[in-house]
Amino acid sequence: MSISITERAIKRIDEIRQNQQITADALLRVSVVSGGCSGLTYNLDFDSSDKIEESDKVFEEGGVKLVIDMKSFLYLAGTKLDFTDGLEGQGFHFYNPNAVRTCSCGESFSL
Fold first, then answer.
1. Half-sphere exposure of 22 toward its Cβ, with a 13 Å CA cutoff?
2. For the whole model, what pTM was predicted?
3. Do strands 64-68 and 101-102 pair parallel, antiparallel, or not at all (unpaired)?
4. Are 107 and 55 spatial neighbours (Cβ–Cβ below 8 Å)?
5. Average pLDDT over residues 36-43
């Protein structure tokens, strides 16, 4: 199983890179951390291309290289990363088939 990224998310990631002058070879690190109203929350951050650990899972789609530590990957396998800017708010959204419950804001989940 892997993590997939929608075209809208890829486009927004590229816009953020340009606006913040982040190099094209920067990695997008995705992780799961404790917190949020449901217990676990998603974290997205750019990281240097030399920060890949041996145990990290690496996926590439549309020129975006996602890096996920093994512990987080256990929570995220099969997840789709999307970006929306509709009436319900603007931001990245994770469609995680492993989540049993999510909060109303969609930023935290539980298994």
1. 17
2. 0.83
3. unpaired
4. no
5. 75
Residue 111: both structure tokens together: 């298994």
Single-letter amino acid code for the residue at 86: G
Q: Which domains occur in the chain, in start order?
A: 4-110 (2.60.300.12)
CA-based nearest residue to 78, from 96, 101, 99, 94: 96
Rg (CA), the chain: 14
Residues 6+ apart with CB under 8 A from 64: 5, 9, 10, 13, 14, 28
Per-residue pLDDT, 36: 64
Check whether 109 has a pLDDT greater than 60: no
Give residue 108's pLDDT band: very low, low, confident or very high (50, 70, 90).
Answer: low
Which parts of 1-111 fold into alpha helices (H)? Answer: 7-19, 70-76
